[in-house]
Amino acid sequence: MAQLQTIPTRPARVAALNRRYRHRAAIQVLREALSDPELGRVAMVSSFGADSVALLHMISLIDRTTPVLFIDTQMLFPETLTYQAEVAAKLGLTDVRTIRATPAAIAAADPDGDLNQTNPDACCDLRKTVPLNRALSSFDSWITGRKRFQGATRSEMEFFEEDPAGDRIKINPLAHWTARDVADYIANNRLPRHPLVSKGYPSIGCMPCTSPVKEGEDPRAGRWRGQDKTECGIHFVNGKMQRIPPAAPAPFVPADGQPVIVRDSGFGPEDWTGPILDLASDADLDDPDLRVGDATMIRIAFPSFTDGRGFTLARRLRVAGYKGRLRATGYVIADQLPMARRSGFDEVEIDADLARRQPWPHWRDAADAAPSYLKKLGRRAS
Ligand code: SF4
């Protein structure tokens, strides 16, 4: 009589893989995984971000024809697109596939490109998770560059995980690497770094949702800064998107003479290291020499506390489609943050003395009560 064969469940397969690969080095995991029948058809998913080049280099040494899926959210930094093309060419990767949301999906869910401001989870779902799951439908397993050191949600990650978004297995060859390991690998192999790393971005995602990180901050602190969001939704644990509860904001003590930035999340130090375009509040946006679209940060100077032209200018920039960071500076006070937010500003820059005189819970509550400027623009459009 024929014997019934028991097919192992996916959790059992993942557990067996983790046992079998337990003592392998990262490149060995990668090498064996690419031809392991247990893992089937394997693709790599890469953001071509700050650390990606290490894993991409390993792939290029093992098999340059491995499919590499690059998710272009159409919200990426221009530097990332340039870097992606350069790295793929340098490493000789022959099957890099750019994945995007369909134009119809974008037109239906995010026609103005501002969903990231009002509902970042939905934006990530639209621009990352859905296109990626569609692209992965012809694969059985996928390689990620995630590492344990990158945060609490990843601290116990193994080489292999179930992918709850599909009947697939995720492979994390760098799970046990430290930030130092990555940096050493990149330096020892003379690999090109993403140009934004040297500008204070240790983790690089989409332009509207990534800000520079100060020394001593968590490397991912610049991703969705100030929001209760730490993952893009592509990565889940036990079937659920992982969130870290937001920490209570600590009172900020401004340094003497240093400007203080007022945001929805509280007072904070200056954290911008990139170029800034300074505009007077009466700047002429029709001036052809004024290339505001190129600026990732615009600072609008208020000439006096009673002069509202800066608010008008900010509204005009937002209505015209400006997506970069907008800051009010000059003669503004923290209490004007709600008004500034309604006008399209992201933040207000005030001097340290002014910050010391304003108890932060007061203005934070005021800021929380401010309706989103994007909702306001949405109402106007409808
Ligand atoms: S990171 Fe930001 S812009 Fe990019 S898909 Fe997510 S919410 Fe949208």
Automatic annotation (TrEMBL):
Q: Which UniProt keywords apply?
A: Cytoplasm, Iron, Iron-sulfur, Metal-binding, Oxidoreductase
**How many cofactor units bind, and how?**
Binds 1 [4Fe-4S] cluster per subunit.
Q: Which reaction does it catalyse?
A: [thioredoxin]-disulfide + sulfite + AMP + 2 H(+) = adenosine 5'-phosphosulfate + [thioredoxin]-dithiol
Q: Which residues form the active site?
A: 232
Question: Which pathway is this protein engaged in?
Answer: Sulfur metabolism; hydrogen sulfide biosynthesis; sulfite from sulfate
Cofactor or coenzyme needed: [4Fe-4S] cluster
- Which residue numbers delimit the Phosphoadenosine phosphosulphate reductase domain? 42-212
Asked if the keyword Cytoplasm belongs to this entry, the reply reads: yes
GO molecular function terms here? Answer: 4 iron, 4 sulfur cluster binding; adenylyl-sulfate reductase (thioredoxin) activity; metal ion binding; phosphoadenylyl-sulfate reductase (thioredoxin) activity
* Top-level EC class: oxidoreductase
Q: Name one Pfam family in it.
A: DUF934
Where is this protein localized, as stated in its record? Cytoplasm
InterPro entries per the UniProt record, alphabetical: PAPS/APS_Rdtase, PAPS_reduct_dom, Ppantetheine_attach_site, Rossmann-like_a/b/a_fold, UCP030820
Q: By what name is this protein known?
A: Adenosine 5'-phosphosulfate reductase
